[in-house]
Each structure stands twice: as structure tokens, then as C-alpha cells.
């Protein structure tokens, strides 16, 4: 079934636990694209749009929200992120920009399935295409939690036990989608940010982000 899912050329996603450094890597990849004069667009989920802004409020734990509602909000945010005319992921990919997203539907499959029914989460995300490339920044839970403890702002999912379960989910996801046409790249996220960026670039550079 999953083999039939649409794959978006020019679309690349970074995923990992909280504190794994996906945001840093998205920024470093953007810098590199700029230097190499590759047209690119860096984006993230939750987005900065109205639904993403609402999600951020819930993530800060300012008021309670049902887990199913969070699943639907993430999906609504993603729908707009993907389909907004001219500025959405799809439109930008079609224009030939390399779109780099810090998190995408794999985050929903990893995080929301902990408190919600897995079929419900899958269904809410079943209409979204896959990216051509998925980069998983692999950092042990203990290291992520150590990094998070140094941050001033905290969010509801940043607990050790929760992150350990998210990691298990990510492993399942990487195995499940290994043969569905996406290129899945796992990088060691414990070395310096510069070294990780270099590894990511080596895997990306010189290889057009298109299907064969
Ligand atoms: P992120 O912006 O990466 O974290 P930070 O604020 O530390 O930079 O992501 C915010 C949180 O949202 C993170 O815990 C992962 C979670 N999330 C989901 O649970 N489901 C989703 O679909 C997405 C995109 C994010």
C-alpha cells in the first residue's frame, strides 16, 4: 500500500528526537546551498502559520488539549504547509527549489502514536506525499535530554520516557518505509554540527534530488 504513495522530488526532510539538532542541520544545509548557488527553501513544522502558532501554544502546555486534537492540528498545519499556493512545499518543489523541512509527517507518526490510536494518526497523514529524501539525525535519548536541560524554554514532549518511546517509533518508521522509494539517510548526530553537516552534504551533493 505504502509503495503507491506519491514522492515529491526536490523535497527533503530532517527528523530526529527533540534536541537531536535537526534545526541546526537545516540551517547549515541552507548555508551550503546558498554558497553552492542551489535554489533552496528552508522550512519547518510546526509552521509559523496560524495553525502552527496554535500548536506552539499547546506545546508550551499553556492549556490542555486532547491528543487526537493535536494529531488533527499537526495534519491541518501540514496540509497548508504543503498546499498553499505559490509558497507551499509543493509549489516550491515544482519551481525547482530544494525544499528542506525541519520535521514533517514522520514526526506525527513518531510522536502522536504514543497517545493516539496508530490507525487514526496514519489516516490523518495518509494523503500527504513523501519527500524524496529523509535524513534521520541519530542521537541517543540520554544525550538529547542532556541538551534539552540546557534550554530555557521547555515543551510538553521533552521528557526522558516519552523521548525513549519516540525513538522506538522512529526506528519502526525507518524500517517500515525502507523500501517505498524514499532515500533514507541516517547520520550520527553525536559528532560536531559541522561534521554532521559535512556528512549530510556528501550524501546530498552531486546527486540530483529526483526519482530515477
Ligand atoms: P521542534 O520545533 O522541532 O522543537 P523545538 O521547539 O525544540 O525546536 O518541534 C516541536 C515539537 O513538536 C517537538 O517535540 C516535536 C513535536 N511534533 C509532533 O509531535 N508532531 C509533529 O507532527 C511535528 C511536526 C512536531
Question: Nutshell version of this structure?
Answer:
47% of the residues lie in helices and 16% in strands. The chain has 9 helices and 5 strands. Helix 1 packs across helix 9, helix 2 packs antiparallel against helix 3 (67-83) and helix 5 crosses helix 8 (160-176).
Structural class by SSE content: alpha/beta
Tally of helical runs: 9
Overall radius of gyration: 16 Å
Largest sheet: 5 strands, parallel
* Average pLDDT figure: 94
Helical coverage, percent range: 40-55%
Helix/strand order: EHEHHHEHHEHHEH
Number of strands: 5
Shape: globular
Low-pLDDT parts are: none
Chemical compounds bound to the protein = thymidine-5'-diphosphate
Structure description:
This protein has 212 residues and is of the alpha/beta class. It has 9 helices and 5 strands. It has helices spanning 22-35, 50-59, 67-83, 89-94, 105-111, 118-124, 141-149, 160-176, 193-204, and strands at residues 7-15, 40-44, 98-102, 130-138, 183-188. Thymidine-5'-diphosphate binds at residues 18, 23, 45-46, 59, 74, 103, 107-108, 111-112, 155, 157.
List the helices and strands and how they pair.
Blueprint: E1 7-15, H1 22-35, E2 40-44, H2 50-59, H3 67-83, H4 89-94, E3 98-102, H5 105-111, H6 118-124, E4 130-138, H7 141-149, H8 160-176, E5 183-188, H9 193-204
Parallel strand pairs: 1-3, 1-4, 2-3, 4-5
The structure holds thymidine-5'-diphosphate.
Task: Sum up the structure in keywords.
212 residues, alpha/beta, five-stranded parallel beta sheet, 47% helix, globular, binds thymidine-5'-diphosphate
Amino acid at each position: 500500500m505504502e509503495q503507491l504513495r506519491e514522492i515529491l522530488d526536490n523535497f527533503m526532510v530532517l527528523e530526529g528526537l527533540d534536541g537531536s539538532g535537526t534545526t541546526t542541520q537545516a540551517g547549515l544545509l541552507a548555508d551550503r546551498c546558498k554558497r553552492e548557488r542551489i535554489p533552496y527553501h528552508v522550512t519547518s513544522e510546526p509552521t509559523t502559520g496560524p495553525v502552527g502558532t496554535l500548536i506552539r501554544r499547546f506545546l508550551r502546555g499553556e492549556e490542555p488539549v486532547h491528543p487526537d486534537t493535536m494529531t488533527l492540528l499537526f495534519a491541518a498545519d501540514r496540509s497548508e504547509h504543503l498546499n498553499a499556493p505559490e509558497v507551499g512545499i509543493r509549489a516550491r518543489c515544482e519551481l525547482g527549489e530544494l525544499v528542506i523541512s525541519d520535521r514533517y509527517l514522520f514526526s506525527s507518526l513518531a510522536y502522536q502514536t504514543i497517545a493516539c490510536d496508530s490507525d487514526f494518526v496514519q489516516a490523518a497523514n495518509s494523503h500527504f506525499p513523501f519527500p524524496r529524501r529523509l535524513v534521520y539525525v541519530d542521537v541517543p535519548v540520554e544525550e538529547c535530554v542532556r541538551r534539552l536541560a540546557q534550554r530555557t524554554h521547555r515543551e510538553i514532549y521533552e521528557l526522558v520516557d516519552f523521548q525513549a518511546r519516540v525513538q522506538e517509533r522512529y526506528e519502526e518508521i525507518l524500517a517500515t518505509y525502507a523500501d517505498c522509494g524514499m532515500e533514507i539517510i541516517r547520520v550520527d548526530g553525536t559528532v560536531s554540527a559541522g561534521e554532521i553537516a559535512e556528512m549530510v552534504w556528501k550524501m546530498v551533493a552531486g546527486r540530483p534530488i529526483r526519482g530515477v
